[in-house]
Amino acid sequence: MIVDTHVHLDDPRYTKDLEEVLRRSVEAGVTQWIIPGADPGTLERAVEIAEAHEGCYFAVGVHPYDARNYDRKLLERYIGHEKCVAVGECGLDYYRLLESEEEIVEEKRIQKEVFVDQIALAKEYDKPLIVHIREASRDSQELLESYAGKRGGVLHCYNADHQLLQMAERGFYYGIGGVLTFKNARKLVEVYPRIPRERLLIETDAPYLTPHPFRGQRNEPAYCRIIAEKMAELSGLSFEELTGICRENTRRLFGI
Ligand code: NI
Question: Which of 61, 78, 95, 196 has its CA at a distance of 20 to 30 angstroms from the CA of residue 42?
Answer without folding.
Answer: 95
